[in-house]
Amino acid sequence: MENSTKQLPTPKAMSNKQVGKRREVNDVQYITSTEALSVLGVRRETFYTYVSRGLIKSQQKQGTKTKLYRKADVEKLRTRAAARTGVPTVSQSLRYGEPIVQTWISEITARGPRYRGHLALDLVAQKRSFEFVAELLWTGLPRTRNVAWPQPLASLNIGAILEKNSSYYAQTSPLRQLAFIAAGLSAMELGINDPDAPDVSANARALIQLFAGAAGLLGPQQKFSEPTSGESIAHCLARGFAIETTEQAIQLLDAALVLSAEHELSAPTFAVRICASTGADLFACVAAGLSVQSGPMQVGGTLEVERLVAEVTTKPGGDSPKFTSALPCFGHPLYDKDPRATVLLELARQFTPQPPDAYRLWNILGDANATGQYPNIFAALVFTSYILGLPLGSGAFIHTLGRTAGWIAHATEQRLTGTMLRPRARFMGAQTS
């Protein structure tokens, strides 16, 4: 594979001491048994029964014999207990608690997400294309085979606008480029106002194709890659990133997109549903999701992983540095080991040829696993991007492109309910009168 992709400026390398001082990017928190007992309000014996049954995961505090307990598990148990007693716990329910909306799109299982009943890992094993999975999420009716999409509608001329301002957009973050596309389409009043309109899928396909074309702004040409009729999304990405469009590269990109496509009610997806519930058009809903997606606890955290990779792969000598503090984008509140990351990284390991310093990347995983830290999908996408020789920012870009398919499904489903999402707040301040 030609590794001629022009890399963006390498992030400043960090020392081992700096690794522990990163901004908060992991949404996996651990608390002591005393804190857990205070949250749950149960006897110590009951608490340890929860732990022994696997309802609360624990890990050893580094350098000590003390055990810490996963906060999300404790909060989930507290929410269920409160539900049985009738005590309102809205604040807890909104953070990895009980479901707050009904959906027929996906569910999270121990083996990863299921899309309309189809395990995402199985779809990857079957080598299903991203287009196949996107239509499955939107309609629930899978095709019999992988089929590429026709060229976007001629009226969606965002590509020409991006081309005219390519020098400006090439300097912005990948998510800002995508946000511009979504907001521009909404501003042109090309969004969907009728969820039953026959052109919902056409507009959804066009939006994703235009997003894929924006990969060219990240690539060495720094030029929008106009999608062509019959070209797969993965192929359009590879062309924009200027890597060889081998069968293995296309399959790896498809797997990355499929595993990123949907994950139930994540924070950006919730924002999309709130926006859709107000009657906003499809493109505005996706733009709302993009704003939330950029946060450091979402794909914004991939920046920290890229810095880590840059440090490891540019460090002189033969050995990778040892990291003792928590690694960015390692761990997930809903999984002991993120199965999406496991599958994607295994495919990346099998990819040939590997970059010369790839062994250092795999050493990071070995060292992290030895300390009980496992990568989530964000870290896996950064590692995969490095193996493919993609420019910086590609991990966040690929995840967002893939997740757009899920956002479109949720926006459509929410519109069909005909109700507006409006959670209530509980005032906790002092009464003055």
TrEMBL record:
Enzyme class: transferase
EC id: 2.3.3.16
Disordered, as annotated region: 1-21
One family name in Pfam for this protein: Citrate_synt
UniProt keyword terms in alphabetical order: Transferase
Pathway membership: Carbohydrate metabolism; tricarboxylic acid cycle; isocitrate from oxaloacetate: step 1/2
Keyword check for Transferase: yes
Positions with biased composition (Polar residues): 1-18
Keyword Lipid biosynthesis among record annotations: no
Family from the record: Belongs to the citrate synthase family.
Protein name: citrate synthase (unknown stereospecificity)
Organism this protein belongs to: Polaromonas aquatica
